[in-house]
Amino acid sequence: MKARTETRQRLQAKKASAPEQLPETGHAIGAGETPMPVVILVEPQLGENIGFAARAMANFELTDLRLVAPRDGWPNDKARSAAAGAAAIVDRATVHDSVADAIGDLNFVLASTARRREMAKAVFSPESAATELRQRQTDSQRTGVLFGPERSGLDNDTIALADAILTAPVNPELASLSLPQAVLLFSYEWLKAKTAALSLGRATSVDKAASEGISLSRTRPARRAELLDLFRHLEAELDRAGFFYPAEKRPSMVRAIRNMFHRMGVTEQDVRTWRGIVASLSGRTPPDSDQERS
Hints:
Strand content: 5-15%
Number of domains: 2
Shape: globular
Low-confidence stretches: 1-32, 289-294
CATH topology of the largest domain: Alpha/beta knot
Order of helices and strands: HEEEHEHHEHEEHEHEHHHH
Number of strands: 9
Radius of gyration: 20 Å
Distance between the termini: 30 Å
Structural class: alpha/beta
Strand order of the largest sheet: 5-4-3-8-6-9-7
Oligomer: single chain
Largest sheet: 7 strands, parallel
Number of helices: 11
CATH superfamily of the largest domain: SPOUT methyltransferase, trefoil knot domain
CATH architecture of the largest domain: 3-Layer(aba) Sandwich
């Protein structure tokens, strides 16, 4: 635990320093640009796969890598060696104890999986996902893509934390991609979709040009941390009301409720409204530690 804390402190200190250049791409990291998608590897098993994934990211101009509980610990010399010219991405990768911690600051999250899931979620191909994230980038939204462990992929509870599913057209006889392959496939489509979506109408002195999708003039998409606070608040009150019955169905019922909110495209204002609704119906004020984040 001490080693992990020291690693985080070292990485945070590096982030505050001058922008670092990736040798192979010349792309500046941390230069105050519009945020790019975060690549999040959940419980990766092999350091080499982390390094290969980092190199795939660098090939296609992605630089933000987060790791959730890597099996062999961190830092990892094998990851740095495999990354070759993209070692800077490995050096700047942040380590998180949970998926919730890794995605807390994000507004929109995709979960990569090759298997059918019994969840009512939007599904994107790599190409359409890249287009979607490019559009959200123009709105200064923070986005990310979850990739699961090499052996098992993402579990249902993790996928329930995402807004939508990312999956690729593959040979049905061999549908599973390796971790670096999956990251490379998405990263390639991200760079290919670099041409910005066309603006609509015209810009004025008080308004920018319109774009496809929902216009959020006085609010913003909710961050994962805000949604998770809402889920904890709502689920606690439903537990008190005896809603989750029988008990063995609670996990699937919780996932269904969370997926319902993800399909709504919830805003920060929506979260505050729902927190107020739940508090009013229960007659209890949300705990101070659970208050909405600014």
